[in-house]
Amino acid sequence: MKYIYLYLLTFIIFLAIDFVWLNFIAKNMYSQKIGHLLAENPNLIPALIFYLIFIVGVIVFAVLPGYSNESITKAILLGALFGLLTYSTYDLTNLATLRNWPISVTIIDIIWGTSISTVTSVAGYYIASWLKI
Q1: Residue 28 burial (10 A CB sphere; 0-12, 13-18, 19+)
Q2: Rounded CA gap, 61 and 68, in Å?
Q3: Which of 9, 82, 109, 110 counts the most CB atoms within 10 A of its CB?
Q4: CA–CA gap between residue 31 and residue 121 (Å, rounded)
Q5: DSSP assignment of 11-57
Q6: Cα–Cα distance between 78 and 81 in angstroms, integer?
Q7: What is the reported pTM?
């Protein structure tokens, strides 16, 4: 049951941070740079599936290894690496395959993915500590 709580709390934190990013911080940048590609109404089901899968990755590849080694540093480094790898996959694929995909979006998005994954991993580490997993 503790793992379910860890997952849910980590999921909520990630979702809240990304909501702020997408709706308040980066919204204008995305509209200006890739507005021609954006749907009028986003399809929330694939977005939800991404979030559900991504949090599994953060927990399995960063939070639990860091926690089991009692090393917040390990959680930070693995969380950053996980974010870098996953967001780079998306953004570099877009840069390679989509016409007029801006390199600035790729760079900003990779930095964002690395950052949010790192912060989420730290939060997950402290949640795991609090739950005494």
Answers
A1: exposed
A2: 12
A3: 82
A4: 29
A5: HHHHHHHHHHIIIIISHHHHHHHHTTT--SS--HHHHHHHHHHHHHH
A6: 5
A7: 0.95
